[in-house]
């Protein structure tokens, strides 16, 4: 990690956030750009905030520094906030979708962005060997205590898929609440396909366009950063990206991902099979 002035970053971020809350978008944008000058790695998510304001280009992803910082800070209260307060239930929905399709048992699974282990718990007993990977060390420690994983790793999902030394493929890969931190999904889908056994399954959730998308339907790209500073992906875009990566879509269902500011956050859950 490159050294930066944490006090200066905190002051600049607070000033920018106050301007944004007051409706002064240009002043907020100036403040977020100042944050990036202090901290080019972007631990506070300034690039996402600029994109959400419509005053900056959407980054390729939320960025490792921001995601790590966000979830390291939230780890201890994560399940209370996300599950009990915001009604997040994607892991259970994923398990139910697999059951509806007749998939009850797997030899080897990989949970990308495993967090505190909610997916592992939802599939406990259905996967002979379960691996998990997450950027946040604090989250992984909680997942380890939960006991639903055989092996846990600290790392970024795309890098893990590219660099993991074991060559044995997975018959199930999951990514619950991971895609909203990525813009273009093609690199991830290609790497997932490369790690799956023939006819292996990929199960993931996305968030889609509601009131929070900064440019409506995501323009030509099919995705955009919403006011919640997460990537929203259009259904047509996701379907096309899956097909381009040579996945066969077995299920593509509208879901409520969680509550956001008292309103349901719309999204999709899909189950896709590698190959035909």
Automatic annotation (TrEMBL):
Family annotation (CDD domains): AdoMet_MTases
SUPFAM superfamilies: S-adenosyl-L-methionine-dependent methyltransferases
GO MF annotation list: methyltransferase activity
Limits of the Methyltransferase type domain: 110-202
Keywords from the UniProt entry: Methyltransferase, Transferase
InterPro entries named in the record: Methyltransf_12, SAM-dependent_MTases_sf
Coiled coil ranges: none
Signal peptide region: none
BP-aspect Gene Ontology terms: methylation
PANTHER family: TRANS-ACONITATE 2-METHYLTRANSFERASE-RELATED
Protein name per its UniProtKB record: Methyltransferase
Organism: Jiella avicenniae
């Amino acid at each position: 990690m490159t050294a930066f002035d944490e006090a200066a970053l905190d002051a600049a971020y607070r000033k920018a956030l106050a301007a944004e809350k007051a409706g002064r978008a240009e002043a907020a944008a100036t403040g977020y750009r100042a944050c990036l000058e202090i901290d080019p790695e972007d631990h506070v998510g300034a690039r996402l905030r600029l994109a959400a304001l419509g005053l900056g280009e959407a980054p390729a992803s939320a960025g490792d520094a921001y995601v790590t910082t966000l979830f390291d800070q939230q780890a201890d209260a994560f399940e209370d906030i996300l599950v009990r307060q915001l009604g997040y239930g994607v892991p259970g929905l994923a398990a139910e979708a697999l059951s509806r399709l007749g998939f009850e048992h797997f030899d080897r699974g990989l949970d990308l962005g495993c967090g505190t282990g909610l997916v592992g718990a939802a599939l406990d007993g259905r996967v002979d060997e379960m691996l998990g990977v997450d950027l946040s060390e604090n989250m992984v420690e909680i997942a380890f205590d939960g006991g639903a994983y055989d092996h846990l790793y600290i790392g970024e999902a795309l890098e893990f898929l590219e660099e993991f030394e074991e060559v044995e493929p997975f018959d199930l890969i999951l990514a619950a609440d991971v895609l909203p931190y990525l813009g273009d999904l093609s690199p991830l889908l290609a790497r997932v396909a490369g790690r799956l056994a023939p006819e292996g399954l990929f199960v993931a959730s996305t968030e889609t366009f509601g009131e929070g998308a900064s440019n409506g339907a995501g323009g030509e790209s099919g995705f955009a950063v919403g006011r919640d500073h997460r990537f929203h992906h259009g259904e047509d875009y996701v379907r096309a990206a899956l097909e381009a990566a040579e996945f066969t879509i077995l299920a593509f269902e509208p879901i409520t991902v969680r509550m956001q500011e008292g309103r349901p956050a719309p999204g999709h859950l899909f189950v896709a099979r590698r190959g035909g």
